[in-house]
């Protein structure tokens, strides 16, 4: 051998050294089955081969391919974010990242496993039990959600994609906020938030300031989303189920007319008294052309929330002016959480039968976890009931007729 | 986490001691003829990261993050066993994403080639293949243990200081970088994570700028692996008090008045040597910068140590000359210990180290790869 290899393959020594010590996914985990897939890749249920034999959810980011050959491309911004943020945080109500394995040009994020999610609970009540979620369960779920959100916000992290499918619950009834793929640090950012992602938050959970074209936004967008989630748990269907206007060919962000109308139908058309900044917003003129509505949130809550203080919490989470909207910290102080029935750490303590069945996994796709060199895994397989979220799959299918079909998906750009 | 350094991956896993640093260079030490060249390589690599970062138009903080990634990578690896240039390109690529100012992979490869393939680096065959850089990114992120959030001294500087005036350029640059700060974010910064100090230090015009530049310069050393960033920031402020003329004048005036160290805001009469124009401007009590630093809840002996190490870096850097002709101009005016070092020389040193290491790995005398200790051989020959 001669030293010309330093020219041709300068990292050869390093690679062979690193590859010799690297432990593969299959040497540490046994794959039990496939949970769900989405634009980022797929999620598998796996058991640790270590002594604890713990169950995990392994999120495998899709490897990029040129033709049939899987090749290295850069790690996506979303994966970098999710990895970077998860490595720093630690909280009971946030899904914990156990480790990241980089192998075969793919990224595997190993998370603690959560048996359920908010979407499952909603679907279980809507289709199987055919009853409303009881007050103690509803209150416990929202309490724990806020408890996790306070932590994220105190770490200066915006989640930016809170929705039922992203909020998990483990077998002990503890809420775990998941999917930080769209989350961002807002502490002294180098770039305006708008510069990175033109569209954030799934349309049904998107705050009015975002719909009105705000480029600067803050933690209040997450609190709006929690309001939407709370209303959805209470009524078993999305409260503002609008149809998303698509980006045009020049990727301009369109006016979200239908989503705003859905909000105005319940909360009334915003007035300058409620929201002084509204007249300066990009979409203000478009908004003025919409039919006027009056606020009927109180009536909406009568049959669904069935608690005066519950209504009051929702009213404050749905404040149009982001500066007047309840913060996560203030929400946890709200009297709804401090009156009977009190929230519990096992959200289903009072009503075990309300817990949805275990997450369904499928066996047939499990072997595709680690692609064989001869047959790289296929992207054409598509599971009925799969969703864009790591948790949204399983036995329940999002009703996808008419305008609802795309509602739970978000668009990601740039 | 964004505010709590003590809960960060940086504090938990990436602040190391001198012994660890020495251990990390142990293999390189076997292949370098003059151990001092390793210290110069630390400067050399920081310059390369800075050059590529600037060409990619990365903000200063992203360049700093790339430099920290590079240093962390070489806590676990040797220069002589790797290609530091592809590592540098990967560091810039990942840091840009980690700091939310991503650049396209093909721009990184293109710009890296433009810089690395020419003098003084002359990397003969830097890859033009994007996937090679992406592969390196994978290994890099793995060696970084996926810890991609980095704390820097800049934030401490901004929190501790306000510039009296004249630093508009810097202020504008920060505003541009900060983006939407001021929309309800700055309002709840929470408590300072380094202690109980309150208020802000008022620096004369360009004082903050000077401290900022000192912080930039610290990345030429391995200080970012040894000390928490807020201590580096305070050490930079301390050096600003000494080296920045206007700031030093303020300190000297306070000292001359004899009230130093008693309170942070001592009322001082302007000393006689000040011009009357300056005296007229001083209506409010003058703040004593040293007293301000003393009241921060940090170890001052430690700050002094860090300041010493920064000065040691400057001493070394003083002998590092980008331009070889400048080095030739003064060949004999310095002793042997103070020979000028150029990037051209260091490029040759690095290549020699890597070739020697490669030879040893390919032709082990005992069947196992064995490294030759040149330092030891020289010592033995001399003895």
UniProtKB/TrEMBL annotation, chain A:
Ranges where the Protein kinase domain occurs: 29-337
The family this protein is said to belong to: Belongs to the protein kinase superfamily. CMGC Ser/Thr protein kinase family. CDC2/CDKX subfamily.
GO molecular function, one term: RNA polymerase II CTD heptapeptide repeat kinase activity
Keyword Transferase applies: yes
Descriptive protein name: Cyclin-dependent kinase 8
Family annotation (SUPFAM superfamilies): Protein kinase-like (PK-like)
Swiss-Prot/TrEMBL keywords: Activator, ATP-binding, Kinase, Magnesium, Metal-binding, Nucleotide-binding, Nucleus, Repressor, Serine/threonine-protein kinase, Transcription, Transcription regulation, Transferase
Subcellular localization, as worded in the UniProt entry: Nucleus
CDD domains: STKc_CDK8_like (cd07842)
UniProt xrefs under PROSITE patterns: PROTEIN_KINASE_DOM (PS50011), PROTEIN_KINASE_ST (PS00108)
Pfam family, one: Pkinase
Catalyses which reaction(s): [DNA-directed RNA polymerase] + ATP = phospho-[DNA-directed RNA polymerase] + ADP + H(+); L-seryl-[protein] + ATP = O-phospho-L-seryl-[protein] + ADP + H(+); L-threonyl-[protein] + ATP = O-phospho-L-threonyl-[protein] + ADP + H(+)
Keyword hit for Transport: no
Highest taxon listed in the record's lineage: Eukaryota
Start-end of Gly residues biased regions: 391-406
Region Disordered: start-end pairs: 369-414
Gene Ontology cellular-component annotations: mediator complex
Taxonomic source organism: Mycena albidolilacea
EC number annotated for this UniProt entry: 2.7.11.22, 2.7.11.23
TrEMBL record, chain B:
The keyword Nucleus appears for this protein: yes
InterPro entries hit by this protein: Cyclin-like_dom (IPR013763), Cyclin-like_sf (IPR036915), Cyclin/Ssn8 (IPR043198), Cyclin_N (IPR006671)
GO molecular function terms noted in the UniProt entry: cyclin-dependent protein serine/threonine kinase regulator activity
Alphabetical UniProt keywords: Activator, Cyclin, Nucleus, Repressor, Transcription, Transcription regulation
Localization: Nucleus
Any one of the GO BP annotations: regulation of transcription by RNA polymerase II
CDD domains given in the database record: CYCLIN_CCNC_rpt1
Gene Ontology cellular component terms for the protein in this record: nucleus
Cyclin-like domain span: 47-142
Keyword Nucleus: yes
Pfam families registered for this protein in UniProt: Cyclin_N
Annotated region described as Disordered, given as residue ranges: 262-283
Superkingdom in the source lineage: Eukaryota
PANTHER family in UniProt: CYCLIN
Family recorded in the similarity comment: Belongs to the cyclin family. Cyclin C subfamily.
Descriptive protein name: Cyclin-like protein
